[in-house]
Amino acid sequence: MAAIRKKLVVVGDGACGKTCLLIVFSKDEFPEVYVPTVFENYVADIEVDSKQVELALWDTAGQEDYDRLRPLSYPDTDVILIPDSLENIPEKWVPEVKHFCPSVPIILVANKKDLRNDENVRNELARMKQEPVKTEDGRAMAVRIGAYDYLECSAKTKDGVRELSFLGPRARPVGQLSALRSPAGRLPPSRRVKGIVGRESRRVCSRSQER
């Protein structure tokens, strides 16, 4: 039986953890060096609900310089991931996604979960009179923007990354019951979920790179 093909696109501010998340997702390894992304395409073969799924993972650049190129990534998208830089999500990312992908479900992802209890990070935020984003704040934002679900994870520790591997392919189109609004608060997990069984990555060059 041929694999079901799904396309997942991740968008968000620069340096918010998009690339690290997808590299861990597809290669099961955490990159130690930050490399700014223009467009990168990864492929993960997974099994969800006893079905083979070929999940294409599209990474995008969040900088304003690429605002005109980024829409090239949106056609035929099945699900959108938005890391939770809460300041820009309702003003920039959600309007952009809903303009180009009006019926595509959004999953709000809290990256860098491991830093929430990091003493150095908490002290630095305290000096700026800030604090780490709380789970309830993230979920409230997810409900506000009409997201399908809210998930917290850490690419560095891999906590929560596996859950994304089946949550993404199972996300339902806008207008159907979301995990945030289901009676149990989250749709029941797959009874049978296997991890990535094959990995590859491909570079997708922007037009500006080809010149």
Describe this structure in words.
The chain has 6 helices and 7 strands; from the N terminus they run βαβββαβααβαβα. It is an alpha/beta fold. The protein has a single domain (4-210), classed as P-loop containing nucleotide triphosphate hydrolases (Rossmann fold, 3-Layer(aba) Sandwich). Strand 4, helix 2 and strand 5 form a beta-alpha-beta unit. The longest helix has 12 residues, at 89-100. Its main location: membrane. One of its GO terms (biological process) is small GTPase-mediated signal transduction.
Poorly predicted runs are: 182-211
Distance between the termini: 41 Å
Structural class, from helix and strand content?
Answer: alpha/beta
CATH class: Alpha Beta
Q: Report the radius of gyration as a whole number of Å.
A: 17 Å
Tally of helical runs:
6
Approximate shape: globular
Question: How many runs of DSSP E, i.e. beta strands?
Answer: 7
Helix content: 25-40%
Largest sheet: 7 strands, mixed
- Sequence of secondary-structure elements: EHEEEHEHHEHEH
Indicate how many domains the architecture comprises. Answer: 1
Q: Based on the structure given, which CATH architecture is correct?
A: 3-Layer(aba) Sandwich
Annotated CATH homologous superfamily: P-loop containing nucleotide triphosphate hydrolases
Subcellular location: Cell membrane
Protein name: Rho-related GTP-binding protein RhoB-like
Membrane topology: Lipid-anchor
Main location: membrane
